[in-house]
Amino acid sequence: MSIQIPQEFLYTIAKERNVSDAELDTAIMALEGNSTAAIAARMEISNIAVRKRLGEVYRKFNISGRGPGKLAELRHQLFYIYEASPVEGGFLKMTTAHKSSLLSGWHQQDWGEAPELSQFYDRSEDLATLRQWVLEDNCRLLALLGMCGNGKTSLAVQLAKNLLPEFECVVWRSLRQAPPLEEILASLLQVFSPHKRGELPSNSNAITAKFFSYLRKHRCLIIFDDLQGVLQKEELAGNYRPGYEGYRELLRLVGVTNHQSCIIFTSSEAPTELSLLDGAKVRSWQPRGSAVIVGELLQEKGLSPSPEEVNILLERYGDNLLAFKIVAMTIQEFFDGDVGEFIQATGLFIDETISEVISHQFERLSSSEAEMMYWLAIESSPVSLSRLRELMLVPPPISELLKNLDSLGRRSLVEKYPGRGEPSFTLQPAILKYVAERLVGQACQEIQNLLKSRKLEGLIVLKTHAIKPLPPAKAKPYKTPRYEQQVMKLLNHHIQNIVMKKYGYEETINILSKIVELMGEKSFLEVGYGLKNLQTILAELGGANLP
């Protein structure tokens, strides 16, 4: 099959890339669909020689990897270069200078650790908006934000591929392993032009200056994936790790400096400087789940959900496409593809993979953020700012409370509900369930330690958080569009199935009763909510129908 690109154009590109005539003739025959053996026979050379010539072509076009994908990438590059070139009657009208810039610059691609998209679900509106921002509004810095699993990396890959013809150079770099800034800039400069490492500036300021000089002279698209890799854990969101503060200055300069390039970054939390830079040239976007995307994903997995079932799943799992993929596999494997049966049977299903994704985000929290997340899980429904402050053992200043809520918002962990007066805050159902189970796990461990040591010093969450008793039994099942996690019910279950199997029912009740009596003699400042929690636990266990 002919590639339908004039040979004059191909030979011009070959000359720019130092591709020999023999190498180009071999590549043309491969692009026309000829096998290695057929090419070898026609050119009267060995199969090894054919592969060697094709390997040289791929190397000169900066195409890496294995298998037939390399030939497809070569065809893709040639097609888009040709489409992006002014042509009349099959002949190029470009000037020599224009041609040199386009052919030597646009060809430069380095996709680094970018994932291969086996399936991309409908994001046409997202892509249209982001394309307008980058091409029409000349956005210099674009942030794609949200929790792990919401599709921001896939969106970045697809967006970069769509923008490919508009840029001279496209480079993808992962920051997950926290590479030093100087190392990243040096690797980018080596892609921009064929420097040897010894020819690069040794001074970090000189490297940065050279980097921005290239951004001004050439139109480059750079993607930094997983920016949270260089951000600090166990602090409020958006602060950089020690020694990585240079990334903050780099992003600031990208946003405020005049140049013709664009940097896109993905992150599970927004860096602090983003809100200060936000404007015409600096934008942020959070991919959202939709009924269309969820429907496509489930259908691709062989399921046929009704619109109502799609909406129920969307309510449960929100923007987390990874969760939907796992749910789809679970429905196929255990429910014979019946979405409705899965919905009725599971309430809210979270497997180890989904829990691990949320865990990575939770473990980045500061202690004050974790305390607030536990309160939101205990309350289940939206909580106002003033109510949240009242609940806390030591009510913080409003300013501190706002800082923590803002940080949790930048981590995409809380949802804000506007009201007539002050707003309310809550958690998405999947996050709520994970946090409740984490809280219960920690509380259960504290109870085991208490039974073993009889010492109150080990109480942490049981001291700082008041766990609600179970509500009275209702005549009719309680129905709500949101998943409501009853923490005490879950804690009772853990105690009966873990603690009492080890210590026995009577011993557990006796020890806890003595500890309650001891705590009753102490002040609230000493025991916090611990006394109330143990009293509630004893009351609930006393009414349990245990063997």
Can you characterise this structure?
This protein has a six-stranded parallel beta sheet, sandwiched between helices. By secondary structure, it is of the alpha/beta class. 55% of the residues lie in helices and 8% in strands.
Summarize the structure.
The protein is an alpha/beta fold and 547 residues long. It is built from 26 helices and 11 strands. Strands 3-5-6-7-4-8 form a 6-stranded parallel β-sheet, sandwiched between helices. The chain has a 3-stranded antiparallel β-sheet with strand order 9-11-10.
Structure characteristics:
alpha/beta, three-stranded antiparallel β-sheet, 26 helices, elongated
Which stretches are poorly predicted, pLDDT < 50 over at least 5 residues? 87-106, 475-483, 543-547
Strand order, main sheet: write it out. Answer: 3-5-6-7-4-8
Rg, rounded, reads 30 Å
Q: Give the fraction of residues assigned to helices.
A: 55-70%
**Fraction of residues in β-strands:** 5-15%
**Shape call:** elongated
Note the main sheet: 6 strands, parallel
- State the distance separating the first and last CA atoms: 76 Å
Class of secondary structure makeup: alpha/beta
Number of strands: 11
Mean pLDDT: 85
Number of helices: 26
